[in-house]
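[Amino acid chain]
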Amino acid sequence: MADVKKEWYLLYCKGKEELRALTNLENQGIDSFFPTMKIEKKVRNKLTCQNVVIFPNYLFVEIDKRTANFNSIRSTRGVIDFVKCGANYTKVPTALVAELKAKQLCRDKAVNAVIAYDEGEAVIIQDGPFKGIEAIYQCKDGLERSVLLINLIHNVTTLCIANTEIKSKSKCKQS
């Protein structure tokens, strides 16, 4: 079997149609990717969590230049064209796409790992310089951090810490 040399290219998509293009490309068997992140937005006075595209209108595709049908990719629903530099299609370094995918996976894990704590609930810090210290949960500080009250040398102090570094005290006893 011949050595398959796939490379990543950059596509320009129609406005807010990255997901449509990704779905249609994957139906054609083409590996596609666009990085997203979850952010909190206030919608009608309610805090909601929404997925936001980091590079709006752009999509990464991994194809073999020798066997890929560039016209088919270009005419996929949601896609406008390849990003070009002069007459050449813009290649994206594989290491960059791998890093973007890894960071996306970490962000998704961190958001999914968030446990809803109640105000006043006792928690234990699991990692970092305050590991092992008991604290009182106060409130969220964005998607990835929480505000805790800790007692250091008989002085109550507030501390902002990553959600992944705390665990409910009652859940620690069960483990």
User: Anything to note?
Assistant: Residues 94-112 form the longest helix (19 residues). The radius of gyration is 23 Å.
